[in-house]
Design brief:
With about 475 residues, the chain is α+β, with helices and mostly antiparallel strands. Helix content is about 20%, strand content about 30%. The protein contains 10 helices and 27 strands.
Length: about 475
């Protein structure tokens, strides 16, 4: 007796030989996409932008000379056969590739490459402007389906109620045999509630949107990555050598809070996103994202105890300190903006800056050394014995003396977020203590590497020190 899977395949194979009225060739070749002349444009600049010659532009647009160009003129761009419509600019979100963009806009990859001067796929980084011809006429809604679980393209078409050759056409495949496991296919649907393009089109339909704020990433700043997706998905990922700790928050949103090193080289870095869907299928996606520079100041040269800058001392202590801030626990213990860990009024401090003797990220020189290090925290003024308070609930993971950091405390707030307090005169908590916002945890002192008493306060996100001022001014996530 024939099983259900065999019957399904037989039905679809038979359907392949039936005529289909859905897919058809264009009746006539379009003249080409149209660019609307903007203020400041010249015929030469437009020619450079689209990789054509001035003579080609003049010929196809019947221009006798370049002085005929006026703002608002519509110029046909030659050499882009197969594309039509008005050329517009959009921002590429995270979750797109050359293949997914080609499918979404139904444009050959070669046209997208030419329009955007692409030489390698990594140039399609998140946040980049993408030049495309706007589609004309009504848009047919599409949805995404992940080709996985051993299903063939023919079986997918049966499940989705679609013609397999239409799937081949829309997704620029060679044939019904051409689908690869892990590919995210786009399929036309009669459901008018589905938008076009629907979410990050290189990722499964269970992922509705991905927001990276700020984008680009910034040196020394905290970035919130928010993924709106169906419940039951397990996410993981990496960025700049650090694991992304992605946790479900609320309202179907998953969140990762990730810092970028204050002295990292600006440029493009791959962000990897992996996941396992509720049905057990998995996906993996990588896209370049930009890291932009921040103009940090230079502190005056500091004179400190030579022992505290000896690499034989600093390297093992730094390794110990960095290791403390690596683990991520799944419970977020804080809610809202952090409180200032000082008796000073936060509004006054933020408005005037008088409470801070040195800011995060400032470049540092010790005992005449080059400016090859940075200030890893925020220095808050105070005298020996001034109270230190916890800025948010958390668990103490370190409390003790160190050579460089002096009497120091570190608190875990969950989700890979930590705060730390250095140069204390007294430590009033111990490892394992649960602390609350505003709880007294220590006293300002003059221990470790410093020139005078103050509180050195650090905030860590995703294993990286970040600017504490951001956490006093805005709520994360």
């Amino acid at each position: 007796m024939m099983n259900k899977r065999s019957l399904l395949i037989l039905t679809i194979v038979f359907a392949l030989f039936l005529p289909s009225g859905t897919v058809s060739a264009q009746n006539g070749a379009p003249e080409g996409p149209v660019y609307i002349v903007q203020e400041g444009d010249t015929l030469w600049s437009i020619a450079v932008r689209f990789g054509v010659s001035v003579e080609e532009l003049q010929t196809i647009n019947n221009l006798s000379n370049a002085n005929q160009l006026m703002i608002g003129d519509q110029l046909i761009i030659p050499g882009l056969e197969g594309a039509s419509g008005v050329i517009v600019t959009e921002t590429i979100p995270f979750g797109e590739s050359l293949r997914s963009l080609s499918r979404s806009y139904q444009l050959p990859p070669e046209i997208l490459k030419k329009l955007n001067h692409l030489t390698v796929p990594s140039e399609l980084f998140a946040g980049r402007f993408l030049t495309i011809p706007q589609q004309e006429g009504p848009v047919t809604p599409k949805k995404r389906t992940l080709l996985s679980g051993g299903l063939s393209l023919i079986e997918i078409s049966a499940i989705e109620g679609s013609n397999p050759w239409e799937i081949v056409f829309i997704n620029n495949l060679q044939g019904t045999w051409d689908g690869a496991a892990g590919d995210v296919l786009q399929i036309t649907t009669l459901d008018t509630g589905i938008s076009e393009p629907a979410g990050p089109t290189a990722l499964p339909a269970a992922i509705r949107s991905i927001e990276i704020n700020p984008l680009p990433f910034l040196q020394g700043k905290t970035t919130a990555i928010k993924i709106n997706a169906e419940p039951g998905i397990t996410f993981s990922g990496t960025f700049m050598g650090h694991d992304l700790h992605i946790y479900p928050d609320q309202n179907d949103v998953y969140v990762a809070l990730q810092g970028s090193h204050a002295m990292a080289e600006p440029g493009l870095y791959p962000m990897q996103l992996n996941g396992s869907l509720a049905d057990g299928s998995s996906f993996s996606f990588s896209q370049m994202v930009p890291l932009a520079p921040v103009d940090y100041l230079y502190d005056r040269p500091l004179i400190v105890n030579p022992t505290t800058i000896d690499p034989a001392v600093t390297k093992p202590e730094d390794a110990q300190w960095n290791q403390l801030a690596l683990p991520a626990t799944p419970e977020r213990l804080w809610d809202g903006i952090f409180e200032i860990p000082s008796p000073l009024p936060v509004d006054y401090c933020l408005e005037t800056g008088d409470c801070f003797s040195s800011r995060f990220g400032n470049r540092r020189s010790y005992n005449g050394s080059p400016y090859n290090s940075f200030h890893t925290g925020l220095d808050i003024v105070g005298t020996v014995g001034t109270d230190i308070y916890a800025p948010a609930p958390g668990t103490v993971v370190f409390a003790g003396p160190l050579t460089v950091r002096g009497n120091a405390t570190m608190i875990n707030h969950g989700w890979g977020v930590y705060t730390a307090y250095m140069h204390q005169d007294e430590i009033l908590v111990q490892v394992g203590d649960q602390v609350e916002s505003g709880q007294l945890i220590g006293k300002i002192g003059s221990t470790g590497r410093l020139e005078g008493p103050h509180l050195h306060w650090e905030v860590w996100a995703g294993g990286v020190q970040v600017d504490p001022l951001e956490w006093l001014e805005q709520a994360y996530p």
